[in-house]
Amino acid sequence: MVANVETLDDFLKTQVLDPWKGPKKVPAAEYFTSGHRTCQGCESAQLMKLMAKAGGPRSIILGSTGCMYVANTTYYSTPWAVPWMHTQLGSSGSAATGTVAALRAMMRKGKMKKEPINVIAVCGDGGGADMGLSAISAALQHTHYNLLILLYDNESYANTDIQVSGSSPYGANSTFSTPGKVKRIMNKRWKKNTAAMLAAGHPDVRYVSTVCTAYPVDAMNSVRRALTIGGPTFVHSLDPCPKGWDYDPKFSHELGELAVETGIWPLYEVEEGQLRMIGRSKRIVEGQFKRKPVREYLRRQGRFAHFIDEDIEYFQKKIDDMWEKWLIPGVIPFAGKLNP
Amino acid sequence: MLKQIEGSRAVAEAIALCRPEVVCAYPITPQTHIVEGVSELVKAGTLKNCEFINVESEFAALSVAIGASAAGARAYTATASQGLLYMAEAVYNAAGLGLPIVMTIGNRAIGAPINIWNDHTDSMAVRDSGWIQLFAETNQEAVDLHIQAFRLAELLSCPVMVCMDGFILTHAYERVDVPDQAAVDAFLPPFEPVQVLDPANPYSIGAMVGPDAFSEVRYLAHHKQLEALEKIPEIAAGFEAAFGRASGGLLSGYRSEDARTIVVALGSVNGTIKETVDAMRADGHSIGSVSICAFRPFPLVALRDAIRHAKRIVCVEKSLAPGLGGIVASNVRMALRGVDHRVYTVIAGLGGRPIPRASLRDVFERAETGGLDDVTFLDLNWRVVNEQLVRARDVRHSGPIAENVLKALNPGRGAAAK
Prior knowledge:
The complex is a heterodimer of chains A (340) and B (418). Chain A has helices at residues 43-55, 67-70, 92-109, 125-131, 133-141, 194-201, 216-229, 242-246, 252-261, 279-285, 294-298, 309-324, and strands spanning 2-3, 14-15, 59-64, 84-87, 118-124, 147-153, 207-212, 232-238, 268-271, 274-277. By secondary structure, chain A is of the alpha/beta class. Chain A has a single domain, classed as 3-Layer(aba) Sandwich (Rossmann fold), CATH 3.40.50.970. The longest helix of chain A has 18 residues, at 92-109. Chain A is globular. The N and C termini of chain A lie far apart (50 Å). The model of chain A is unreliable at 4-8 (pLDDT under 50). Chain B has 15 helices and 16 strands. Chain B folds into 3 domains: 2-243, Thiamin diphosphate (ThDP)-binding fold, Pyr/PP domains (Rossmann fold); 251-377, Rossmann fold, CATH 3.40.50; 388-413, no CATH class. In chain B, the strands form 3 sheets. Chain B has a 7-stranded mixed β-sheet, sandwiched between helices. A 6-stranded mixed β-sheet of chain B has the order 10-12-11-14-15-16, sandwiched between helices. In chain B, strands 1-8 form a two-stranded antiparallel sheet. Chain B is α/β, with parallel strands linked by helices and 418 residues long. Chain A binds chain B through residues 57-60, 62, 69-70, 73-75, 78, 80-88, 90-91, 93-99, 101-106, 108-109, 111-112, 117, 134-135, 137-138, 142, and chain B through 21-22, 24, 49-51, 53, 55-57, 59-61, 63-73, 75, 89-90, 93, 97, 190, 197-199, 201-210, 213. Strand 4 (84-87) of chain A pairs parallel with strand 9 (204-205) of chain B, so a sheet runs across the interface.
């Protein structure tokens, strides 16, 4: 079944991937199977599994360098049951663009059947929020190509043993930002607001969302929506990382939930220019759910073990500002009024 | 069809004749006119079913081409100089994956200092990336090499760089015979990939490989280049049979069969060298030249056969390996291993410096009498060099070298030197 993105020609059609109403409706078939060698409790691997399931068998995955390449995809034990290709750390957006362009040219020529194929490029926070940002931005400008960029954000260069990235939280301990006796806080940069930046900066993009694997059905449905709506789309996932965040692997889901419940990771989607908060984040905005103190989230992780009260208060204030002072809470950070 | 046409335009028309399905464009002088030309041919409908993609960097240009080629499309891009270095990681990746992408290099110097003019430093920087590198001597050959390049690339599943001298070829208007579509279609069959991203037959491309297999994978990349040594002459012969003119091949000699001095060079400078050879022959000198078209794979045997009868070899090369000297000469010496020849390196034409016949004749005659250094910089201004060396020795804060050199070249102009 296909849906028209634009009525111009067949090559712009996407697969219609209706949302799954609850976990019992999710099919059993897996396209990200055994063989990956990621850490116990790795939520990025979980995200790959959910993404592959959500996209289904007619998908091509392009994986830029990162955990989900090096730890995940080695010959003889590759977990992918759909076609997968490595692309450079900085080129997830470019590779996806090229693949989509090729499929379109070949379908138009009659070298391939005119059946829509999902093209999904995955990148980590290093590949997405740091090195590959310009390529993703460029891909999001090619509005006539159907592709999804999925950013799996474990908040560090985890594959190379946890170095700070532009997506690492303020103050987090990493091998490049180890707290010391003289300097306690080495990473003074605030986490990049990547999804909202891309949504605001590319208003013709029809779908941008944030997800968290702690809410797997929502995450899968977000991927399905992104693939169905067509054009270039972007999904940003926060993935708790036991090794990088320093906690017992059994708490991965709990930490994902806490990231949302403390307001640190707002869940939202921007569809056709319309912003919607999702799940618990929606309830926070509506006043139905009181944000938990960030202390509950920070104190569960070894990467913040060096924080003193002052640091936690600073963190809390930044989050409070994000919800109370921003133009759009949790999304667009400009304070002030449009008609002063 | 014979045309009086700019080199870049002729190449653009040749590319269109090869019916690429994905072309990526990013501007960098002196290559830009080529992709501009392809863009026009797409928009005019001359090149049909081609996705012409504007990208945000050269790294993206080649990454898009990689994604396209892996999906089974014939992919093309062009770059030069800084752009080639910016895409270097993807250059190696395309070769490692065995994706038959064709890319034009409008050869240009590499900064710093930035210099937009011609030399071969850019292509030389990626000579060992696993790409086949073909150097065009004329615009006609540039056109013909592109048509052969797609055939070669797809036959071997190996990417091919067609290198043409920036400005000297890319911007020169001259007579070029651009083939017709039917002839190119007959010569170049549609692309059939050996590996493809296909949901009906899924596998992983470019997954990680450990020490157990990596050497074998790398050897096979080397083997592919060795195979190319056979395929390049075959394809050139097939091209000549189909189009009625000789183009490409591993190398070509000019009055070299009986020459005691043989000049070896890449690209358009061979035109000047041939004229110098003619003039010296007329005066009784025993001299000839060999133009190397295939620099990777390097034609060790063919070159050895072409030059071993000579007494001395002079390599005129438009690139410099600082700390070593000549890159071409180093390769030529390997072809001559076991043969007792003098191999001279003449570094010439860096950053667009003209290579006049008189200067070439001077170094060739000095080579004949044994009066040439192993590494010679053609027309180097030693006064300026020595002034800067003294200045750098005497003054700690001696300033930017390039500016000092210009000041020394133009005394009395600009701000007075400190």
